[in-house]
Amino acid sequence: MSVAQPRYDRGRLTPGIVHIGLGNFHRAHMATYLDDLFALGEDHDWAILGAGVRPADARMREALAAQDWLSTVIELDPQGKRARRVGAMIGFVEVDPANGPLIAAMRRPEIRIVSLTVTEGGYFIDPATGRFDPAAPEIAADAAAPDRPATAFGAIVAALAARRAAGVAPFTLLSCDNLPGNGDVARAAVVGLARLSDPGLADWIDTHVAFPNAMVDRIAPATGPRERAMAAAFGLDDPVPVTCEPFRQWVIEDRFPAGRPALEKVGAIFTPRVHDFETMKIRILNGGHAAIGYPAELLGIEHVHEAMADGRIAAFLDKIETDEIVPIVPPVPGHDLHDYKQLILRRFANPEIADTARRLCFDGSNRQPKFIIPSIRDNIARGVMPAGLILASALWCRYCEGTDSRGRTTPPNDPDWDMLTATARAAKQDPARWIGMRAIYGDLSDDPAFVAAFEQALHLVWNEGVGAALARYTEG
User: Fold this and answer.
1) Are 421 and 401 in contact (CB under 8 A)?
2) How many angstroms separate the CA atoms of 352 and 149, rounded?
3) How far apart are CA 320 and CA 327, in angstroms?
4) pLDDT for 1 beyond 80
5) Cα–chain-centroid distance for residue 213?
6) Nearby residues of 370 by Cβ (< 8 Å), 6 or more positions away
7) What pLDDT digit, counting tens, does each position of 416-456 carry?
8) What is the DSSP letter of 446?
């Protein structure tokens, strides 16, 4: 089987972007867009310098250095796999606990964009308020020692301070994480951290640095033996290959004072209406993931495509999407929401992806308040008590109890797992304990109709089982 190679002279590339967080998603998403753009002969001064702040980033750097910074990306099309070597990255900054090399790289005038994928939970958001948490221990440590920051945001603040002092224009900070208003969230983290040690710098950043919002989408499963075997089948000895679905989407606000690559030439969408696309994706795709992940795990179903082949789960998802999610999503330019829903269902059913239900269930304490609970609120606001979404949240509670339907122990799968497990076990007899978690459900527990609907759903799951609860909803 052939492997597509970069169709440009990588020796002529120069860096314009530092990207923090070289995980699978970045290499399957942003790096492939730039690889395609470079192949058109465009914007060769926008190559990527990789970077990271965690020990795992150092291991990734070592692996990629051994293959001249090339990434193997395998698209898992059901009609046939396609492999390519992506060459958009031309170096990887040394990983250091004090982030000196990273700060030095971001100080360079030719770096006009700093982008990052540090995961949804990496922005130091207080779950109780949904805002940046200046009291987070890592943030407090960086504020106390701004010249030796341990976090990505501390390094960004230090680099911006150095650029201001040198009279160098600031870079644009582009979040590529799956967060509502990710640019606004990144601004809050950077400005909030700077304000703790240098209020004048914080004001300068708030005034002069652009933080465009962006919506990103591509399913890129974790790498394991299966993925390395796929690379080997293409004749590649790569310890860190990336697999992904054929679909990709990137919607970005066009706010780049220092310039940007012409990504619209390779399919990116620049629009001031990113929030509309974002709402569509977060509610329909991420909400759909949350709806199927928990019943699948509870029923002992390992993979997402296997969950979609289970008639109970597929019917549950389709009814929730059709009746409770699509009706509350605002119109999106150039998109039919029902067509988008069908696209999502097909993507979930792709057997080549082998995405796991466990991955979908990870970090529910962070994801439920973003992907499920806002849809519950919007339905209640339109006079509808959304039984399916409430059942999805009850299934999350049942999952966090720590055993599946067959009595097998569920390994911890949330940063707050111990607390969630204790609360879920208490909620078996008193469901109000679960929805009383104000950091997650807010004031929903003050709504008697919601409380009654949740209690009914959770009792149904415990008393009649997951399959019966799904059937009761879809047939009712």
Assistant:
1) yes
2) 41
3) 10
4) no
5) 14
6) 120, 179, 180, 282, 286
7) 999 999 999 999 999 999 999 998 999 999 999 999 999 99
8) G
What does the pLDDT read at residue 243? Answer: 96
56 and 195 belong to one structural domain = yes
Tens digits of per-residue pLDDT, 224-258? 999 999 999 999 999 999 999 999 999 999 999 99
Residues 167 and 196 in one domain: yes
Q: Using an 8 Å Cβ cutoff, are 382 and 328 in contact?
A: yes
Quick one: 87 and 181 in the same domain? Answer: yes
Residue 328 shares a structural domain with residue 441: yes
Pick the last residue of a domain from 239, 272, 305.
Answer: 272
**Are 247 and 113 within one domain?**
yes
On whether the CB atoms of residues 220 and 242 are closer than 8 A, the answer is: yes
Please count the structural domains in the chain: 2
3-state secondary structure of 108: coil
* Cα 55 from Cα 205, distance rounded (Å): 29
Judgement on whether residues 291 and 267 belong to the same structural domain of the protein: no
Q: For the domain that residue 153 is a member of, what is the CATH number?
A: 3.40.50.720
3-state secondary structure of 421: helix
pTM attached to this predicted model: 0.90
Of 272, 301, 325, the position where a domain reaches its end is 272
Long-range pairs of 416-422 with CB within 8 A, sequence gap ≥ 24: 416/365, 420/364, 420/365
Is residue 375 classed exposed, middle or buried when 0-12, 13-18 and 19+ CB atoms within 10 A define those classes?
Answer: buried
* Structural domain that includes position 290: 275-475
DSSP of 145-208: -TTS--SHHHHHHHHHHHHHHHTPPPPEEEE-SS-TTHHHHHHHHHHHHHHHH-HHHHHHHHHH
Indicate if 283 and 263 belong to the same structural domain: no
From CA 56, how far away is CA 73, in angstroms rounded? 19
Domain CATH for 303: 1.10.1040.10
d(CA 468, CA 435): 22
- Same domain, residue pair 27 and 70: yes
List the structure tokens of 296: 């699948």
Which string of DSSP letters, residue by residue, matches 249-286?
EEEE----TT----GGGGT-EE-S-HHHHHHHIIIIII
Distance CA 345, CA 292 (A): 11
